[in-house]
Amino acid sequence: MATVRSKDLAPRAVDLIEESVHLLRRHPERLAGYYASSGPFAVGLVYFWAYVTWFAPPDGEVAAGALLLALLFGFSKAGQNRFAGRLLALRSGEEAPAWRTRDWLAETAAQLRTQAPGIVLVPLAALFGVPFAWIYGHYQTATVLPRGDEEAGASRSKQAWALAQLWPVPNHWALLILSGLWLMVFLNLAVAFYLVPSLVTNWLGLRTGFALSGWNTLNSTFLALVAVLTHLLVDPLIKTYFVLRVYYGRSRQTGDDLRLVLRQEGTRGRVVAPLAALILMGAVFLAAPRLPANETGATPVAPVPTQTAPARLLNPALDRVLEQPAFRWRLRPAPIPPDREKEGIIKGFVRSTFDVIVQMVKTVIRWFEALHRWVSGLLPGEGDGGDAAAPGERVRSTTNWMSVLQWTAYVLIVGVAGLLLFTIWKVISHNRTAPLRSAPVPAAPAAPDLRDETVEASRLPAEGWLDLARQQAAAGEWRLALRALFLATLARHAQEGLLSLAKFKTNLDYESELRRRARSRQAVVEDFGRRRRQFEEVWYGSGAASDTAVGEWLRTLEGRP
To answer: What Rg do the C-alpha atoms of the chain give, in angstroms?
Structure first.
Protein backbone atom coordinates (compact mmCIF):
# COMPACT_ATOMS: atom_id res chain seq x y z
CA MET A 1 0.00 0.00 0.00
CA ALA A 2 1.26 3.48 -0.77
CA THR A 3 2.55 5.58 2.08
CA VAL A 4 2.16 9.29 2.68
CA ARG A 5 5.47 11.06 2.14
CA SER A 6 6.78 13.58 4.61
CA LYS A 7 6.57 16.39 2.05
CA ASP A 8 2.77 16.13 2.18
CA LEU A 9 2.86 17.66 5.66
CA ALA A 10 3.74 21.03 4.08
CA PRO A 11 0.96 22.95 2.30
CA ARG A 12 1.64 23.48 -1.38
CA ALA A 13 2.28 26.99 -2.68
CA VAL A 14 -0.53 26.91 -5.22
CA ASP A 15 -2.99 25.65 -2.60
CA LEU A 16 -2.18 28.49 -0.22
CA ILE A 17 -2.45 31.13 -2.96
CA GLU A 18 -5.79 29.73 -4.16
CA GLU A 19 -7.10 29.66 -0.59
CA SER A 20 -5.91 33.26 -0.16
CA VAL A 21 -7.85 34.34 -3.24
CA HIS A 22 -11.00 32.57 -2.05
CA LEU A 23 -10.67 34.06 1.44
CA LEU A 24 -10.48 37.57 -0.02
CA ARG A 25 -13.36 36.92 -2.39
CA ARG A 26 -15.57 35.68 0.43
CA HIS A 27 -14.83 38.74 2.58
CA PRO A 28 -14.16 41.73 0.26
CA GLU A 29 -15.41 44.14 2.91
CA ARG A 30 -12.16 43.61 4.83
CA LEU A 31 -10.27 45.42 2.09
CA ALA A 32 -11.85 48.70 3.15
CA GLY A 33 -9.86 48.70 6.39
CA TYR A 34 -6.68 47.82 4.54
CA TYR A 35 -6.96 50.69 2.06
CA ALA A 36 -8.11 53.14 4.73
CA SER A 37 -4.81 52.61 6.58
CA SER A 38 -2.45 52.00 3.64
CA GLY A 39 -3.88 54.71 1.37
CA PRO A 40 -2.46 57.71 3.31
CA PHE A 41 1.03 56.19 3.29
CA ALA A 42 0.83 55.46 -0.45
CA VAL A 43 -0.30 59.01 -1.25
CA GLY A 44 2.33 60.46 1.08
CA LEU A 45 5.09 58.35 -0.48
CA VAL A 46 4.26 59.45 -4.04
CA TYR A 47 3.91 63.10 -2.99
CA PHE A 48 7.18 63.01 -1.04
CA TRP A 49 9.02 61.43 -3.96
CA ALA A 50 7.66 63.96 -6.47
CA TYR A 51 8.28 66.90 -4.12
CA VAL A 52 11.90 65.95 -3.47
CA THR A 53 12.77 65.11 -7.10
CA TRP A 54 10.93 68.04 -8.68
CA PHE A 55 11.39 70.95 -6.28
CA ALA A 56 14.76 70.15 -4.61
CA PRO A 57 13.61 71.40 -1.15
CA PRO A 58 16.05 72.27 1.63
CA ASP A 59 17.26 69.62 4.06
CA GLY A 60 14.91 70.74 6.83
CA GLU A 61 11.81 70.16 4.74
CA VAL A 62 13.13 66.77 3.59
CA ALA A 63 13.71 65.69 7.20
CA ALA A 64 10.23 66.81 8.28
CA GLY A 65 8.63 65.01 5.35
CA ALA A 66 10.62 61.84 6.07
CA LEU A 67 9.46 61.90 9.71
CA LEU A 68 5.83 62.28 8.68
CA LEU A 69 6.26 59.49 6.12
CA ALA A 70 7.69 57.20 8.81
CA LEU A 71 4.66 57.82 11.04
CA LEU A 72 2.32 57.06 8.12
CA PHE A 73 4.30 53.87 7.49
CA GLY A 74 3.79 52.74 11.09
CA PHE A 75 0.08 53.56 10.88
CA SER A 76 -0.26 51.57 7.64
CA LYS A 77 1.50 48.58 9.21
CA ALA A 78 -0.84 48.76 12.20
CA GLY A 79 -3.83 48.80 9.84
CA GLN A 80 -2.43 45.83 7.94
CA ASN A 81 -2.05 43.98 11.24
CA ARG A 82 -5.71 44.66 12.03
CA PHE A 83 -6.68 43.53 8.51
CA ALA A 84 -4.66 40.33 8.90
CA GLY A 85 -6.03 39.70 12.38
CA ARG A 86 -9.60 39.83 11.11
CA LEU A 87 -8.78 37.40 8.30
CA LEU A 88 -7.06 35.06 10.76
CA ALA A 89 -10.11 35.18 13.01
CA LEU A 90 -12.37 34.38 10.07
CA ARG A 91 -10.17 31.46 9.08
CA SER A 92 -10.09 30.16 12.66
CA GLY A 93 -13.84 30.53 13.13
CA GLU A 94 -13.39 33.02 15.97
CA GLU A 95 -14.36 36.62 16.58
CA ALA A 96 -11.77 39.35 16.05
CA PRO A 97 -11.16 41.65 19.05
CA ALA A 98 -12.18 45.29 18.81
CA TRP A 99 -9.49 47.96 18.61
CA ARG A 100 -9.40 51.15 20.60
CA THR A 101 -7.29 54.27 20.16
CA ARG A 102 -4.56 53.11 22.50
CA ASP A 103 -4.41 49.80 20.63
CA TRP A 104 -3.72 51.68 17.40
CA LEU A 105 -0.97 53.72 19.06
CA ALA A 106 0.64 50.68 20.67
CA GLU A 107 0.56 48.64 17.47
CA THR A 108 1.98 51.55 15.44
CA ALA A 109 4.93 51.85 17.85
CA ALA A 110 5.45 48.06 17.86
CA GLN A 111 5.43 47.87 14.07
CA LEU A 112 7.90 50.75 13.78
CA ARG A 113 10.30 48.96 16.14
CA THR A 114 9.95 45.65 14.30
CA GLN A 115 9.91 46.85 10.69
CA ALA A 116 12.64 49.50 10.87
CA PRO A 117 15.57 47.11 10.13
CA GLY A 118 13.62 45.60 7.23
CA ILE A 119 13.93 48.84 5.23
CA VAL A 120 17.65 48.01 4.87
CA LEU A 121 17.68 44.19 5.17
CA VAL A 122 14.95 43.38 2.61
CA PRO A 123 16.63 45.25 -0.31
CA LEU A 124 19.99 43.70 0.62
CA ALA A 125 18.43 40.22 0.73
CA ALA A 126 16.80 40.84 -2.66
CA LEU A 127 20.21 41.88 -4.01
CA PHE A 128 21.89 38.66 -2.84
CA GLY A 129 18.86 36.54 -3.79
CA VAL A 130 19.21 33.43 -1.64
CA PRO A 131 18.11 34.71 1.82
CA PHE A 132 15.32 36.89 0.41
CA ALA A 133 12.50 34.39 1.08
CA TRP A 134 13.44 34.07 4.75
CA ILE A 135 14.07 37.79 5.37
CA TYR A 136 10.97 38.94 3.48
CA GLY A 137 8.87 36.20 5.08
CA HIS A 138 10.10 37.24 8.53
CA TYR A 139 8.93 40.85 8.18
CA GLN A 140 5.68 39.94 6.47
CA THR A 141 4.94 37.42 9.22
CA ALA A 142 5.75 40.04 11.85
CA THR A 143 3.19 42.29 10.17
CA VAL A 144 0.35 39.76 10.25
CA LEU A 145 0.99 38.16 13.66
CA PRO A 146 -1.83 39.04 16.08
CA ARG A 147 -0.97 41.73 18.56
CA GLY A 148 -0.45 40.69 22.17
CA ASP A 149 0.41 37.15 21.08
CA GLU A 150 3.76 36.90 22.84
CA GLU A 151 3.93 33.61 24.66
CA ALA A 152 6.55 32.15 27.01
CA GLY A 153 8.59 35.34 26.76
CA ALA A 154 9.05 34.99 22.99
CA SER A 155 8.89 38.33 21.21
CA ARG A 156 7.00 38.89 18.00
CA SER A 157 10.25 38.99 16.06
CA LYS A 158 11.29 35.54 17.36
CA GLN A 159 7.90 34.04 16.57
CA ALA A 160 7.98 35.58 13.09
CA TRP A 161 11.46 34.15 12.45
CA ALA A 162 10.39 30.68 13.59
CA LEU A 163 7.34 30.74 11.31
CA ALA A 164 9.34 32.17 8.38
CA GLN A 165 11.62 29.11 8.42
CA LEU A 166 8.72 26.69 7.92
CA TRP A 167 8.31 25.01 4.53
CA PRO A 168 11.07 26.85 2.60
CA VAL A 169 10.46 25.17 -0.77
CA PRO A 170 6.71 26.03 -0.98
CA ASN A 171 7.51 29.51 0.28
CA HIS A 172 10.03 30.07 -2.52
CA TRP A 173 7.54 28.85 -5.11
CA ALA A 174 4.78 31.04 -3.71
CA LEU A 175 6.98 34.15 -3.67
CA LEU A 176 8.02 33.40 -7.24
CA ILE A 177 4.37 33.19 -8.32
CA LEU A 178 3.44 36.36 -6.43
CA SER A 179 6.45 38.19 -7.89
CA GLY A 180 5.33 37.23 -11.38
CA LEU A 181 1.83 38.51 -10.59
CA TRP A 182 3.29 41.78 -9.26
CA LEU A 183 5.36 42.24 -12.41
CA MET A 184 2.39 41.59 -14.70
CA VAL A 185 0.20 44.10 -12.85
CA PHE A 186 3.03 46.65 -12.96
CA LEU A 187 3.47 46.26 -16.72
CA ASN A 188 -0.29 46.49 -17.32
CA LEU A 189 -0.59 49.71 -15.31
CA ALA A 190 2.50 51.24 -16.94
CA VAL A 191 1.24 50.49 -20.44
CA ALA A 192 -2.21 51.82 -19.56
CA PHE A 193 -0.87 55.09 -18.14
CA TYR A 194 1.39 55.52 -21.15
CA LEU A 195 -1.17 54.72 -23.85
CA VAL A 196 -4.29 56.43 -22.46
CA PRO A 197 -3.02 60.03 -23.08
CA SER A 198 -2.08 59.06 -26.65
CA LEU A 199 -5.50 57.53 -27.23
CA VAL A 200 -7.20 60.63 -25.85
CA THR A 201 -5.15 62.76 -28.22
CA ASN A 202 -5.89 60.58 -31.25
CA TRP A 203 -9.61 60.09 -30.55
CA LEU A 204 -10.66 63.33 -28.90
CA GLY A 205 -8.02 65.73 -30.17
CA LEU A 206 -7.00 66.80 -26.64
CA ARG A 207 -3.26 67.49 -26.45
CA THR A 208 -2.12 66.89 -22.90
CA GLY A 209 1.34 67.28 -21.45
CA PHE A 210 1.64 63.50 -21.12
CA ALA A 211 1.02 62.97 -24.84
CA LEU A 212 3.51 65.65 -25.89
CA SER A 213 6.27 64.44 -23.56
CA GLY A 214 6.55 61.00 -25.22
CA TRP A 215 9.14 58.74 -23.61
CA ASN A 216 10.05 61.50 -21.13
CA THR A 217 6.92 60.44 -19.22
CA LEU A 218 8.86 57.40 -17.99
CA ASN A 219 10.63 59.34 -15.26
CA SER A 220 11.18 58.34 -11.64
CA THR A 221 7.91 59.87 -10.45
CA PHE A 222 5.92 57.93 -13.05
CA LEU A 223 7.63 54.66 -12.10
CA ALA A 224 7.13 55.36 -8.39
CA LEU A 225 3.41 56.03 -8.94
CA VAL A 226 2.93 52.81 -10.93
CA ALA A 227 4.90 50.80 -8.36
CA VAL A 228 2.81 52.13 -5.46
CA LEU A 229 -0.47 51.41 -7.26
CA THR A 230 0.75 47.89 -8.09
CA HIS A 231 1.64 47.30 -4.47
CA LEU A 232 -1.78 48.45 -3.32
CA LEU A 233 -3.42 45.96 -5.69
CA VAL A 234 -1.20 42.93 -4.96
CA ASP A 235 -0.25 43.42 -1.32
CA PRO A 236 -3.63 42.30 0.16
CA LEU A 237 -3.12 38.92 -1.52
CA ILE A 238 0.43 38.72 -0.15
CA LYS A 239 -0.77 39.54 3.36
CA THR A 240 -3.52 36.91 3.11
CA TYR A 241 -0.97 34.32 1.98
CA PHE A 242 1.16 34.99 5.05
CA VAL A 243 -1.95 34.94 7.26
CA LEU A 244 -2.58 31.37 6.09
CA ARG A 245 1.07 30.47 6.67
CA VAL A 246 0.72 31.72 10.24
CA TYR A 247 -2.54 29.82 10.67
CA TYR A 248 -1.19 26.49 9.44
CA GLY A 249 2.18 26.99 11.10
CA ARG A 250 0.64 27.61 14.50
CA SER A 251 -1.83 24.76 13.99
CA ARG A 252 1.10 22.36 14.07
CA GLN A 253 1.42 23.22 17.75
CA THR A 254 -2.15 24.06 18.74
CA GLY A 255 -4.30 21.93 16.39
CA ASP A 256 -6.58 24.87 15.57
CA ASP A 257 -7.31 23.51 12.08
CA LEU A 258 -8.47 20.14 13.47
CA ARG A 259 -10.64 21.77 16.11
CA LEU A 260 -12.24 23.94 13.42
CA VAL A 261 -13.00 20.88 11.28
CA LEU A 262 -14.51 19.08 14.27
CA ARG A 263 -16.69 22.08 15.09
CA GLN A 264 -17.88 22.30 11.50
CA GLU A 265 -18.60 18.58 11.35
CA GLY A 266 -20.52 18.77 14.64
CA THR A 267 -22.66 21.63 13.36
CA ARG A 268 -23.26 19.82 10.10
CA GLY A 269 -24.16 16.61 11.97
CA ARG A 270 -26.83 18.35 14.02
CA VAL A 271 -28.50 19.45 10.78
CA VAL A 272 -27.97 16.32 8.70
CA ALA A 273 -28.77 13.67 11.33
CA PRO A 274 -32.59 14.23 11.46
CA LEU A 275 -32.77 14.34 7.67
CA ALA A 276 -30.73 11.15 7.38
CA ALA A 277 -33.02 9.43 9.90
CA LEU A 278 -36.13 10.34 7.88
CA ILE A 279 -34.54 9.05 4.67
CA LEU A 280 -33.54 5.81 6.38
CA MET A 281 -37.03 5.24 7.75
CA GLY A 282 -38.58 5.84 4.31
CA ALA A 283 -36.15 3.40 2.74
CA VAL A 284 -37.03 0.72 5.31
CA PHE A 285 -40.78 1.03 4.76
CA LEU A 286 -40.63 1.25 0.97
CA ALA A 287 -38.10 -1.50 0.33
CA ALA A 288 -39.63 -4.80 -0.84
CA PRO A 289 -38.47 -8.02 0.86
CA ARG A 290 -36.21 -10.31 -1.14
CA LEU A 291 -37.38 -13.94 -1.65
CA PRO A 292 -34.94 -16.80 -2.11
CA ALA A 293 -34.41 -18.09 -5.63
CA ASN A 294 -35.89 -21.58 -4.95
CA GLU A 295 -39.23 -20.02 -3.80
CA THR A 296 -39.71 -17.97 -6.98
CA GLY A 297 -38.66 -20.75 -9.31
CA ALA A 298 -36.00 -18.62 -10.95
CA THR A 299 -32.62 -20.00 -11.67
CA PRO A 300 -29.88 -18.61 -9.49
CA VAL A 301 -27.67 -16.06 -11.16
CA ALA A 302 -23.96 -16.71 -11.10
CA PRO A 303 -22.03 -14.05 -9.26
CA VAL A 304 -20.12 -11.56 -11.40
CA PRO A 305 -16.40 -12.05 -10.96
CA THR A 306 -14.71 -9.02 -9.43
CA GLN A 307 -11.77 -7.40 -11.21
CA THR A 308 -8.72 -6.46 -9.23
CA ALA A 309 -6.24 -3.84 -10.32
CA PRO A 310 -2.55 -4.74 -10.35
CA ALA A 311 -0.24 -3.24 -7.73
CA ARG A 312 1.64 -1.09 -10.26
CA LEU A 313 -1.60 0.80 -10.99
CA LEU A 314 -3.01 0.76 -7.47
CA ASN A 315 -0.08 2.46 -5.74
CA PRO A 316 -0.04 5.59 -7.98
CA ALA A 317 -3.82 5.86 -7.63
CA LEU A 318 -3.53 5.72 -3.85
CA ASP A 319 -0.78 8.36 -3.94
CA ARG A 320 -3.01 10.71 -5.95
CA VAL A 321 -5.90 10.24 -3.53
CA LEU A 322 -3.73 10.75 -0.46
CA GLU A 323 -2.36 13.99 -1.92
CA GLN A 324 -5.83 15.57 -1.72
CA PRO A 325 -6.29 18.23 0.99
CA ALA A 326 -8.75 16.05 2.90
CA PHE A 327 -6.05 13.45 3.59
CA ARG A 328 -3.20 15.82 4.41
CA TRP A 329 -2.82 15.91 8.18
CA ARG A 330 -0.84 18.63 9.88
CA LEU A 331 1.13 16.48 12.30
CA ARG A 332 3.93 17.55 14.56
CA PRO A 333 7.31 17.58 12.81
CA ALA A 334 9.90 14.96 13.47
CA PRO A 335 12.21 15.78 16.40
CA ILE A 336 15.41 17.61 15.53
CA PRO A 337 18.49 15.34 15.74
CA PRO A 338 20.87 16.21 18.59
CA ASP A 339 23.71 16.99 16.17
CA ARG A 340 21.62 19.68 14.44
CA GLU A 341 20.59 21.44 17.64
CA LYS A 342 24.17 22.68 18.11
CA GLU A 343 24.54 23.99 14.57
CA GLY A 344 25.51 27.60 14.13
CA ILE A 345 23.78 30.10 11.90
CA ILE A 346 26.15 29.66 8.94
CA LYS A 347 26.20 25.87 9.13
CA GLY A 348 22.44 25.68 9.51
CA PHE A 349 21.94 28.05 6.58
CA VAL A 350 24.27 26.01 4.33
CA ARG A 351 22.59 22.75 5.33
CA SER A 352 19.12 24.20 4.72
CA THR A 353 20.20 25.47 1.29
CA PHE A 354 21.61 22.05 0.41
CA ASP A 355 18.38 20.37 1.57
CA VAL A 356 16.35 22.74 -0.63
CA ILE A 357 18.51 21.89 -3.66
CA VAL A 358 18.18 18.15 -2.95
CA GLN A 359 14.39 18.46 -2.66
CA MET A 360 14.24 20.39 -5.94
CA VAL A 361 16.31 17.71 -7.71
CA LYS A 362 14.06 14.98 -6.31
CA THR A 363 11.01 16.91 -7.47
CA VAL A 364 12.41 17.13 -11.02
CA ILE A 365 13.11 13.39 -10.95
CA ARG A 366 9.53 12.70 -9.86
CA TRP A 367 8.27 14.88 -12.74
CA PHE A 368 10.26 12.80 -15.22
CA GLU A 369 8.95 9.58 -13.69
CA ALA A 370 5.37 10.87 -13.96
CA LEU A 371 6.00 11.84 -17.60
CA HIS A 372 7.37 8.34 -18.27
CA ARG A 373 4.29 6.74 -16.71
CA TRP A 374 2.02 8.98 -18.80
CA VAL A 375 3.80 8.11 -22.04
CA SER A 376 3.74 4.41 -21.15
CA GLY A 377 0.01 4.62 -20.51
CA LEU A 378 -0.54 5.88 -24.05
CA LEU A 379 0.92 2.71 -25.56
CA PRO A 380 -1.35 -0.22 -26.48
CA GLY A 381 -1.53 -2.89 -23.81
CA GLU A 382 -0.56 -0.47 -20.99
CA GLY A 383 -2.96 0.09 -18.15
CA ASP A 384 -5.26 -2.88 -18.71
CA GLY A 385 -3.51 -5.17 -16.23
CA GLY A 386 -3.15 -8.06 -18.64
CA ASP A 387 -6.85 -8.98 -18.62
CA ALA A 388 -7.21 -9.22 -22.39
CA ALA A 389 -8.12 -12.42 -24.17
CA ALA A 390 -4.84 -12.66 -26.06
CA PRO A 391 -2.12 -11.61 -23.68
CA GLY A 392 0.63 -12.80 -25.98
CA GLU A 393 -0.45 -10.41 -28.72
CA ARG A 394 -0.73 -7.49 -26.27
CA VAL A 395 2.76 -8.03 -24.92
CA ARG A 396 4.13 -8.35 -28.42
CA SER A 397 2.38 -5.12 -29.50
CA THR A 398 3.66 -3.24 -26.47
CA THR A 399 7.18 -4.50 -27.08
CA ASN A 400 7.05 -3.31 -30.68
CA TRP A 401 5.84 0.16 -29.68
CA MET A 402 8.50 0.46 -27.00
CA SER A 403 11.17 -0.60 -29.48
CA VAL A 404 10.01 2.01 -31.98
CA LEU A 405 10.04 4.74 -29.34
CA GLN A 406 13.47 3.75 -28.06
CA TRP A 407 15.01 3.71 -31.55
CA THR A 408 13.33 7.03 -32.35
CA ALA A 409 14.79 8.55 -29.20
CA TYR A 410 18.24 7.18 -30.05
CA VAL A 411 18.07 8.64 -33.55
CA LEU A 412 16.96 12.04 -32.21
CA ILE A 413 19.76 12.10 -29.62
CA VAL A 414 22.39 11.15 -32.20
CA GLY A 415 21.03 13.74 -34.66
CA VAL A 416 21.04 16.54 -32.06
CA ALA A 417 24.55 15.62 -30.91
CA GLY A 418 25.79 15.53 -34.52
CA LEU A 419 24.21 18.91 -35.26
CA LEU A 420 25.79 20.40 -32.13
CA LEU A 421 29.24 19.05 -33.05
CA PHE A 422 28.86 20.34 -36.63
CA THR A 423 27.93 23.80 -35.33
CA ILE A 424 30.92 23.87 -32.98
CA TRP A 425 33.23 22.78 -35.80
CA LYS A 426 31.90 25.50 -38.12
CA VAL A 427 32.36 28.18 -35.47
CA ILE A 428 35.92 27.09 -34.70
CA SER A 429 36.88 26.85 -38.38
CA HIS A 430 35.35 30.26 -39.09
CA ASN A 431 37.31 31.84 -36.25
CA ARG A 432 40.55 30.30 -37.55
CA THR A 433 40.13 31.40 -41.17
CA ALA A 434 38.47 34.76 -40.64
CA PRO A 435 40.97 37.58 -41.32
CA LEU A 436 41.64 40.06 -38.60
CA ARG A 437 40.10 43.38 -39.42
CA SER A 438 41.00 46.54 -37.65
CA ALA A 439 38.11 48.30 -36.07
CA PRO A 440 37.24 51.56 -37.80
CA VAL A 441 38.23 54.64 -35.89
CA PRO A 442 35.10 56.58 -35.05
CA ALA A 443 35.04 60.01 -36.50
CA ALA A 444 34.93 62.95 -34.16
CA PRO A 445 31.38 64.22 -33.71
CA ALA A 446 30.63 67.34 -35.67
CA ALA A 447 29.92 70.50 -33.76
CA PRO A 448 26.22 71.36 -33.54
CA ASP A 449 24.94 73.93 -36.00
CA LEU A 450 23.82 76.89 -33.90
CA ARG A 451 21.64 78.14 -36.75
CA ASP A 452 19.50 74.98 -36.53
CA GLU A 453 16.39 75.62 -34.44
CA THR A 454 16.15 71.93 -33.46
CA VAL A 455 19.53 71.83 -31.68
CA GLU A 456 19.04 70.82 -28.04
CA ALA A 457 21.09 71.70 -24.98
CA SER A 458 21.64 68.00 -24.24
CA ARG A 459 23.90 67.65 -27.33
CA LEU A 460 26.95 68.94 -25.40
CA PRO A 461 27.96 69.47 -21.78
CA ALA A 462 28.21 72.99 -20.44
CA GLU A 463 31.95 73.23 -21.17
CA GLY A 464 31.38 72.16 -24.77
CA TRP A 465 28.88 74.96 -25.32
CA LEU A 466 31.29 77.44 -23.70
CA ASP A 467 34.06 76.40 -26.11
CA LEU A 468 31.65 76.86 -29.01
CA ALA A 469 30.68 80.30 -27.67
CA ARG A 470 34.35 81.33 -27.53
CA GLN A 471 34.84 80.20 -31.12
CA GLN A 472 31.85 82.20 -32.35
CA ALA A 473 32.94 85.24 -30.35
CA ALA A 474 36.43 85.05 -31.86
CA ALA A 475 34.82 84.91 -35.31
CA GLY A 476 32.66 87.92 -34.51
CA GLU A 477 29.38 85.97 -34.65
CA TRP A 478 27.86 87.56 -31.54
CA ARG A 479 24.33 86.32 -32.20
CA LEU A 480 25.46 82.68 -32.47
CA ALA A 481 27.72 83.12 -29.46
CA LEU A 482 24.74 84.38 -27.45
CA ARG A 483 22.75 81.23 -28.33
CA ALA A 484 25.69 79.00 -27.36
CA LEU A 485 25.82 80.78 -23.99
CA PHE A 486 22.09 80.22 -23.41
CA LEU A 487 22.46 76.51 -24.23
CA ALA A 488 25.46 76.37 -21.89
CA THR A 489 23.30 77.88 -19.13
CA LEU A 490 20.65 75.19 -19.66
CA ALA A 491 23.26 72.43 -19.65
CA ARG A 492 24.87 73.84 -16.46
CA HIS A 493 21.55 73.86 -14.58
CA ALA A 494 20.82 70.33 -15.83
CA GLN A 495 24.17 69.12 -14.47
CA GLU A 496 23.27 70.66 -11.10
CA GLY A 497 19.95 68.75 -11.07
CA LEU A 498 17.82 71.89 -11.34
CA LEU A 499 16.49 71.18 -14.84
CA SER A 500 15.47 68.13 -16.87
CA LEU A 501 16.26 68.72 -20.53
CA ALA A 502 13.58 67.61 -23.00
CA LYS A 503 12.81 68.40 -26.61
CA PHE A 504 9.19 69.39 -26.01
CA LYS A 505 9.97 72.02 -23.32
CA THR A 506 10.03 75.72 -24.06
CA ASN A 507 12.20 78.35 -22.43
CA LEU A 508 9.29 79.37 -20.20
CA ASP A 509 8.86 75.74 -19.18
CA TYR A 510 12.50 75.67 -18.10
CA GLU A 511 12.04 78.87 -16.12
CA SER A 512 8.94 77.49 -14.36
CA GLU A 513 10.77 74.25 -13.57
CA LEU A 514 13.75 76.17 -12.21
CA ARG A 515 11.43 78.26 -10.05
CA ARG A 516 10.00 75.04 -8.56
CA ARG A 517 13.27 73.27 -7.93
CA ALA A 518 15.37 76.24 -6.79
CA ARG A 519 12.95 77.98 -4.48
CA SER A 520 15.70 78.57 -1.92
CA ARG A 521 18.03 80.06 -4.59
CA GLN A 522 16.08 83.07 -5.74
CA ALA A 523 19.13 84.75 -7.26
CA VAL A 524 19.61 81.83 -9.66
CA VAL A 525 15.98 82.03 -10.76
CA GLU A 526 16.15 85.78 -11.35
CA ASP A 527 19.42 85.51 -13.26
CA PHE A 528 18.00 82.80 -15.53
CA GLY A 529 14.89 84.88 -16.24
CA ARG A 530 17.05 87.89 -17.17
CA ARG A 531 19.28 85.76 -19.44
CA ARG A 532 16.24 84.17 -21.12
CA ARG A 533 14.74 87.55 -21.97
CA GLN A 534 18.12 88.80 -23.21
CA PHE A 535 18.54 85.77 -25.51
CA GLU A 536 14.96 85.83 -26.89
CA GLU A 537 15.15 89.56 -27.61
CA VAL A 538 18.18 88.94 -29.84
CA TRP A 539 17.31 85.53 -31.32
CA TYR A 540 13.58 85.99 -31.91
CA GLY A 541 13.27 89.77 -31.81
CA SER A 542 14.98 92.77 -33.32
CA GLY A 543 17.62 93.22 -30.63
CA ALA A 544 21.30 93.30 -31.56
CA ALA A 545 23.96 91.20 -29.87
CA SER A 546 27.05 93.06 -28.69
CA ASP A 547 30.50 91.97 -27.65
CA THR A 548 29.91 93.56 -24.25
CA ALA A 549 26.85 91.42 -23.48
CA VAL A 550 28.55 88.26 -24.74
CA GLY A 551 31.72 88.91 -22.75
CA GLU A 552 29.81 89.66 -19.54
CA TRP A 553 27.70 86.46 -19.87
CA LEU A 554 30.80 84.39 -20.70
CA ARG A 555 32.69 85.69 -17.65
CA THR A 556 29.70 84.87 -15.44
CA LEU A 557 29.59 81.25 -16.62
CA GLU A 558 33.34 80.88 -16.28
CA GLY A 559 33.22 82.23 -12.73
CA ARG A 560 35.46 85.24 -13.52
CA PRO A 561 34.69 88.74 -12.22
So the answer is: 37
